[in-house]
Each structure stands twice: as C-alpha cells, then as structure tokens.
C-alpha cells in the first residue's frame, strides 16, 4: 500500500509518501514540505498548499491519504490555519476518490514509538530506524508526515478490514432478510 501522509500547516505543510504493508518492510518514497509565504494573502497560501498536494498526488499516485487530525491549541490562529491546510489536503484526495483517514498526533506517536506521549526526537529516531535511513527526513514537518503514513499503513489497514467486514456482514443480513418469505397476513 502506498500512503501520502500530510502534516498540515500554512507555512510548512509536511508531506511524506511511504510504501509497505503490515509485516513487510516499509520504504520511503519521498518526504518534504510545501512552503507558503506567511506575508501572502490567505487565499494564495491555500492555493499554494493545494498545488503542492496535487503535485505530490500526481507524482506518487498513493492509494490512501493520512492527514493529522487538528487538535485544540492555545494559539487559535495556528489551529485555524492548520485546519484549513488539512481541509485542502482532504479535498484534493476526495476529488480523486482516494480514501482519507485522520490520525491524531498521539495515535501516530503510539504507532511509531509505542507511546502516545513520545517527543519529536523519539518519533524522528524511530521513523529513521523503521525506514532504514541514516537520519530522519527534514524538516520535522516532513518526518511527522512520514510518521502519519506509517501509522496509516499499520493501523489504517486493520481499520479498513474491520470496516469492510462490517459492511459485508450488513450486506449478508440484508440479503437474508430479503430472501425470507413475506409473512402471510391471513396466517396461512
């Protein structure tokens, strides 16, 4: 499975593409950031993020997109910008019919390090180790995006199988319900 991880941000939107499967070695395809000028108009910055995400989607053709779920911080303007950049990435993926998953930072940390409270240095060290790299992708936003992609490969695949099993079960129940003879209102 090939996954594009997105660590949303207006100034630096981290992007990372990882290929792999549960129980198999992971491979880093590319990691980097889309940068926008903090002095530019918001609309232009969002267009810049969109162009960057679209370029990555074109070049890497992922099967899924994993975006960091925005959580509340003390700096409201940062949260809003992060949410807007995340929404752009989600829209780009949806436009192509790609499945999108949202993972919290602690979910990604737990998947990578075993602890949802790991610090950035621990996450970066494990990303490098898991991908057999001399060092973690730079800047930190790129490493975070790669961690999200890994998290999705390891956790998202299982979540997708559970969801598919639930859909299959619901479909079978509905087919069985339809196959039953209609009750005879006259009791015959």
From TrEMBL:
List the Pfam families.
RuvC
Q: Kind of enzyme, top EC level?
A: hydrolase
The record's PROSITE patterns line, in alphabetical order, gives:
RUVC
Cofactor stoichiometry and binding remark: Binds 2 Mg(2+) ion per subunit.
The residues annotated as the active site are 7, 68, 141
User: SUPFAM superfamilies given for it?
Assistant: Ribonuclease H-like
A Gene Ontology molecular function term for this protein is:
DNA binding
Annotated Gene Ontology cellular components are: cytoplasm; Holliday junction resolvase complex
Query: Do the record's keywords include Metal-binding?
Result: yes
* Keyword Metal-binding part of the UniProt annotation: yes
Q: Which GO terms describe its biological process?
A: DNA recombination; DNA repair
Q: Which UniProt keywords apply?
A: Cytoplasm, DNA damage, DNA recombination, DNA repair, DNA-binding, Endonuclease, Hydrolase, Magnesium, Metal-binding, Nuclease
| Compartments, record wording | Cytoplasm
According to UniProt, the reaction catalysed is: Endonucleolytic cleavage at a junction such as a reciprocal single-stranded crossover between two homologous DNA duplexes (Holliday junction)
User: Could you say which cofactors this protein requires?
Assistant: Mg(2+)
What functional role does this protein have?
A: The RuvA-RuvB-RuvC complex processes Holliday junction (HJ) DNA during genetic recombination and DNA repair. Endonuclease that resolves HJ intermediates. Cleaves cruciform DNA by making single-stranded nicks across the HJ at symmetrical positions within the homologous arms, yielding a 5'-phosphate and a 3'-hydroxyl group; requires a central core of homology in the junction. The consensus cleavage sequence is 5'-(A/T)TT(C/G)-3'. Cleavage occurs on the 3'-side of the TT dinucleotide at the point of strand exchange.
Q: Which PANTHER family match?
A: CROSSOVER JUNCTION ENDODEOXYRIBONUCLEASE RUVC
Q: Which family does it belong to?
A: Belongs to the RuvC family.
Protein name per UniProt: Crossover junction endodeoxyribonuclease RuvC
């Amino acid at each position: 499975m090939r996954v594009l991880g997105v660590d949303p941000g207006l100034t630096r939107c981290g992007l990372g593409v990882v290929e792999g499967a549960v129980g198999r070695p992971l491979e880093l395809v590319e990691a980097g950031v889309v940068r926008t000028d903090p002095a530019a108009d918001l609309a232009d910055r969002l267009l810049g993020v969109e162009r960057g995400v679209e370029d990555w989607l074109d070049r890497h053709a992922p099967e899924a997109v994993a975006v960091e779920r925005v959580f509340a911080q003390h700096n409201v303007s940062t949260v809003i910008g992060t949410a807007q950049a995340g929404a752009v990435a989600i829209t780009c993926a949806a436009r192509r019919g790609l499945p999108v998953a949202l993972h919290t930072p602690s979910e990604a940390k737990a998947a990578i390090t075993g602890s949802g409270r790991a610090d950035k240095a621990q996450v970066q060290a494990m990303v490098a180790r898991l991908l057999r790299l001399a060092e973690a992708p730079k800047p930190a936003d790129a490493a975070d995006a790669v961690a999200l992609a890994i998290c999705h490969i390891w956790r998202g695949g299982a979540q997708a199988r559970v969801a598919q099993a639930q859909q299959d079960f619901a479909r079978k129940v509905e087919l069985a319900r339809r196959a039953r003879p209609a009750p005879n209102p006259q009791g015959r």
